[in-house]
Design goal:
44% helix; 12% strand; five-stranded antiparallel sheet; alpha+beta; 16 helices; single chain
């Protein structure tokens, strides 16, 4: 859970799709979602928000006293700013809560350990302090124009439930106290309750450990160069040694520079294309890997030499240029496993069949699409959308382009997320590929 923090705001980076997992594991996470369900007038909006959050449509989340904010994307990628307001505690309310928190040593220890025991919440409620929201406490604001909770604010609330699972102090920040202030006030009250003398020089170990998470973020890393460097040209007058292809060596050097720049700039984060994927490959898969390198934007891709190289790779791997283009896209979404799902159709039987049927039966609470199955592929009837089951049990999204099925994104743990990805894919990858050398009606690499 990556985040940036200031004194009164914590910003959590966008989380990946939930992929079948629930949105709350802790009791306080469930209580947060129940407040949303009890507040929203239309249950359909809550379900829409759950689907959007599950598909990874919620961007970075800002948490401040009294407000949470994020940009949420519809299935058509339209962006909306969603805010949910939660009234902070008054100064008197915080004073009563702090008194309750230091009454029992277990309460203070739990907070330092980022836990929210039910007994602490019950003791606070006994003095009139409601930490968790109730009916009507989660007030929505969205630029889509909805006056009640819409799918965007519901999606934000579902994602915040995941954040609360990891750290209930997020809830206390919404209620008005940042971490540094909270622990400082708790320590002062605890010392006063115990009648302690002023502490000796130094910092209490427990307090120092608690404050560690509130330190300012490290300075940013230096920016990488704008692009990869160009390798030296090998086109000299010297006759190459037998078996040495200067053009191929130039390509491999350019590809290495491009890949190094890609990972240095962070473009490879979260993509399952690690170095381990490049060992134990067949000739056909290695051709796809090399073709993917030619399409990384080295500055030379798209020239006559690159087209000739891609023709050689396609021919050597037994594919057409269009088939090679689709295989490159599959490699980018999932490495060798992605190419296997694209090019291999297999019969789902035995235990795999039982698991697939159970996953499809439980996938949609309503608006179940009409699916036609063939082998490990299920097509939504009357559409250009398809989901495929990989041999590892993951589901892959596909869309029909130019009469052929093409990858539309990375794998998911459940068919719902995979189909949502296929439906929401905007075709950017295919457009970029098609602009690099193939004629009308065909895909290029």
């Amino acid at each position: 859970m990556n985040e940036h923090a200031s004194d009164t705001e914590r910003i959590f980076e966008a989380l990946p799709p939930a992929q079948g997992r629930g949105f709350a594991r802790t009791w306080w996470g469930h209580a947060w979602l129940k407040a949303l369900e009890d507040t929203a007038l239309e249950a359909q909006q809550v379900r829409t928000g759950r689907r959007l959050a599950r598909a990874g449509a919620v961007g970075a989340v800002s948490v401040r006293p009294g407000r949470i904010t994020a940009v949420v994307h519809d299935r058509d990628r339209t962006a909306h700013r969603a805010d949910v307001l939660l009234e902070p505690l008054s100064d008197d309310g915080w004073a009563r809560f702090l008194d309750v928190a230091v009454e029992r040593s277990g309460h203070l220890a739990a907070l330092l350990d980022r836990d929210l025991p039910p007994e602490l919440v019950e003791d606070a409620a006994a003095v009139g302090i409601e930490l968790l929201p109730g009916i009507g406490d989660l007030e929505p604001r969205c630029d889509c124009g909805a006056w009640d909770h819409c799918g965007h604010t519901a999606a934000l609330c579902h994602l915040v439930a995941r954040l609360l699972d990891e750290d209930p102090l997020v809830l206390l920040l919404m209620r008005g106290r940042d971490e540094r202030t909270l622990f400082g006030e708790l320590h002062a009250r605890d010392a006063a309750e115990a009648g302690e003398q002023p502490p000796p020089d130094g910092v209490d170990a427990a307090e120092a450990y608690a404050r560690g998470a509130a330190l300012p973020p490290l300075p940013p890393l230096p920016a990488p160069p704008a692009g990869p460097g160009l390798p030296p040209s090998l086109g000299t007058e010297t006759v190459p040694a037998p078996g040495v292809d200067p053009a191929a060596l130039e390509f491999l050097a350019a590809r290495t520079a491009a890949r190094a720049h890609r990972w240095l700039s962070g473009a490879g984060d979260g993509v399952s294309l690690g170095w381990a994927d490049e060992f134990g490959l067949t000739v056909g898969l290695d051709a796809v890997r090399l073709a993917e390198g030619a399409c990384e934007g080295t500055g030379a891709a798209g020239g006559p030499g690159d087209r000739a190289l891609l023709d050689r790779l396609a021919k050597g791997s037994g594919r057409s240029r269009a088939q090679l283009a689709r295989a490159v896209r599959a490699w980018r979404t999932g490495g060798a496993a992605g190419v296997a799902v694209l090019e291999e159709e297999w019969a789902v039987d035995g235990e795999a069949q039982a698991r697939a049927r159970a996953a499809l039966a439980a996938a949609w609470e309503e608006d179940r699409p009409s699916l036609r199955g063939t082998g490990n592929r299920w097509t939504v009837v009357g559409t250009g959308h398809q989901i495929r089951l990989g041999r590892d049990g993951r589901w892959w999204p596909f869309r029909k382009e130019h009469g052929h099925w093409a990858p539309a994104g990375g794998p998911a743990q459940d068919p719902t997320t995979a189909l949502a990805t296929a439906e929401g894919w905007d075709g950017t990858e295919g457009a970029a590929a098609g602009a690099s050398g193939a004629g009308p009606g065909h895909e290029g690499v």
